[in-house]
Amino acid sequence: MSHAASPYTQMDDLIALRFHVKPRRLAQQQKLISEKGGYHQAIRKGRGMEFSEVREYTAGDDVRHIDWKVSARTQKTHTKVFTEELEKPVVCVLEQTPKLFFGSRTRFKADMALQLLAALGWVTLQQGDRFGGLAFNHLGHQWVEPRHHQTSVMQFLHQSLALQQQLSSPGTSSSEQWVTQLSQLQKHLRPGTRVFLIGDFLNSSDAFIEKLTQLKRHADITLLHVYDPLEIHLPTLGQLKLTDGDHEMALNTLDDAFREQYTELYESAWQTLHQQLAPWHLPLVDIATDEDPVKGLMAQGILR
Q1: Are strands 78-84 and 248-252 parallel, antiparallel or unpaired?
Q2: Which of 101, 112, 103 lies closest to 229 in space, CA to CA?
Q3: pLDDT tens-digit profile of 105-135?
Q4: Which domain holds residue 61?
Q5: Model confidence over 61-112: pLDDT tens digits?
Q6: Fewer beta carbons within 10 angstroms: which end of the chain, N or C?
Q7: One domain, residues 104 and 202
Q8: Hey, what's the torsion of the CAs at 219, 54, 146, 87, to 10 degrees?
Q9: Where is the DUF58 domain (predicted)?
Q10: pLDDT at residue 297 above 50?
Q11: How would you class 160 by CB atoms within 10 Å of its CB: exposed for 0-12, middle for 13-18, buried for 19 or more?
Q12: How many whole angstroms separate alpha carbon 10 and alpha carbon 185?
């Protein structure tokens, strides 16, 4: 699907995903919570409520919705009227930092993350919901207001590609970048929104987890962790040299003990992340760079 000659995502591939997801739908959030969030009595959240009008209070109205300012001005009790939203927003937060500018098979992590975003966007439009969100790299971020229109998805994809193309070499990223971006998201988030976070969440800070718990009070959150197979298993290729552009490290892949320790390091970080999220029943899935993005989402129960 991707063009192997370039580490960057191709817009044609992102548009083509629209046809690959035509028969698919997003799985229900409570099913994900049960399967991936460690909670088997999940309560289904309703759609968000949208303000409609203010009218005079009548018996049976919810007293919590009384508009005290209008009531004081008119000397008659008035209440706010809300209607259930016909569409539920789906919002993605996409990471495109140097941490994701790496890949050993098929595609770079940044490319995979963007393809997952595109698949979720096209599916959301198909099922009649609004789609938008926030993409960020180490230099800045872009917000796209959720709308039920193809132009919203295309705008998101174009802005994400622009952020990706600012990447030139792999590097490390602080989880504080995620904290900053989630704070930005909080300004735009409406109650009942479904949120997908797409990126690399290993070695997350306590501040990141705390911010997630704040957002969870008003939104359904799922984390999609993107990884490369080389991050888990080292091939037996003798002496290897890895570099992030600034530092170089030699690896002896013929050393069985070293390879085992390398794998254990990743698995320990993955288990730690699970333990951090478990008390809050936040679904966490992982998808490898060498997987087909749509099949990967289906295998993890995100799409059905």
Answers
A1: unpaired
A2: 103
A3: 899 999 999 999 999 999 999 999 999 999 9
A4: 51-84
A5: 788 889 999 999 999 998 887 655 456 799 999 999 999 999 988 999 999 9
A6: C
A7: yes
A8: 70
A9: 53-266
A10: yes
A11: buried
A12: 27
Number of domains present in the structure of the chain: 2
Both structure tokens of 82 = 């809300």
pTM score: 0.81
Do both 36 and 139 map to the same domain? yes
Question: Cα–Cα distance between 28 and 37 in angstroms, integer?
Answer: 13
- Is residue 1 in some structural domain? no
Place of tokens 């997350």: 204
For residue 181, which phi and psi values (nearest 5 degrees)? -70, -35
Same domain membership, residue 34 and residue 104: yes
Give the distance from CA 221 to its chain's centroid. Answer: 8
Task: In whole angstroms, give the CA distance from residue 209 to residue 103.
Answer: 27
Instruction: Give the residue ranges of DSSP H helices in the chain.
Output: 11-20, 29-36, 68-74, 109-126, 150-164, 176-188, 206-216, 256-277, 293-299
pLDDT tens, 203-257?
Answer: 999 999 999 999 998 899 999 999 999 999 988 888 877 766 677 878 888 888 9
